[in-house]
Amino acid sequence: MLFTGGLLLAGGQSFVISTDLKYISNRPKQSDRQFVSKAVDETINKVKKSIKNQELAWMFENCFPNTLDTTVKYSEIDGKPDSFVITGDIDAMWLRDSTAQVWPYLPLVKNDKNLKKLFRGLINRQAKCINIDPFANAFNFDKVQKGHWDTDVTDMKPEIYERKWEIDSLCYPIRLAYHYWKSTGDTVCFDATWQNAMQIIVDTFKDQQRKNNQGSYSFLRVTDRFYDNLPGVGFGNPINPVGLIVSSFRPSDDATLFPFLIPSNYFAVVSLKQMSEMLLSLGVKKSLAKEAKDLAKEVETALDKYAISEHLDFGEIMAFEADGFGNQMFMDDANIPNLLSLPYLGAMDLDNPIYKNTRNFVLSKNNPWFFKGKVAEGVGGPHVGLDMIWPMSIIMRAMTSTHDDEIKSCIEMLIKTHAGTGFMHETFHKDNPEKFSRSWFAWANTLFGELILKLYKERPNLLAAI
Question: Residue 235, SS3?
Fold first, then answer.
């Protein structure tokens, strides 16, 4: 849905866009917040003091806690924490989004017992979801909640909101578990349910290498949107089984054209190595640890051969998609994982020459989904369409930049394009930021907060200069 001004709904609050901003907090009042973290509130107060620009400080205060304020359903089931984290204006939990939404709070877990329970609860919930169906990208709170896509022609279950197979949906839960473990040393959530989920992840990745057949997954939807369906009677376009993993859909939830989605395969390599390390350290499922490590190596070797190619203008760069027959697609999409985000995900060094070339391509007119307008420039994607820039892409550009001027420019664009709301949106029009989609999109909000926190720690001079 696109908004063009007036009354909006953001995080459960209604307010009117104003050109005379007073920078009054748009957070819900304390009693209405879904989850309260003392460590997060203290961080907001501390970081705000270092930000010279009042509008930027106000945006940080609104955005950074948005996931906790508005999207968390926390409880305990059989004495174990359970955290269900919706995306915002869609009342369902994506494995990808839920991880990304809580990610910026991870450094604060040691100082907040309640926050630690939230992370334990999300690890528990994600493991349960994977055990229900590893091909699903989004889940309902329970069997009673009615999903929006229960008529899709695929193996739907009552707990599933949407069943689009995306590699990253299984990578993000590993990322969450691994870094929680590294940050806290806590292993209580890595029980038999979690261990079984890890086995299912490896089995699913292998199934979607499609070495002997088309694999276990297919998907069809009655729709007028090209990117919401799969060709090949629901199995997607043909691939040559070269060791890469098929991702039927992108992290935008749009269908792939060439089924080997390159950024997600890089993400899988990182995730499988992390899984192997965890299992070995825990002293459980040693054979699975080896299986995960071997699979990571196989995918990595295939990436070296099939992901990189000589571009007409940029030298050696990574393709966005491939099919193993030699066909490749050169573009990037704003959703993460994408090519731009690979260093952020730990898949590639910032100074890698191929990444640098790829980054230059992504942020140029040669990328068909890069838009430059009157108010901003950035990457979009087919999900919303032409001329619509995702704030996430501007944030990720800043997160992967090593140049103060570029980071400063990104921050200034984000200030100019929140349309007076104090929140990030899914997309905005390159020439008119008041034309935007999704007024309540928690992933983008907390990612923006993560960027400001990163600058506070690494480049405080920028926050004092903007």
Answer: coil
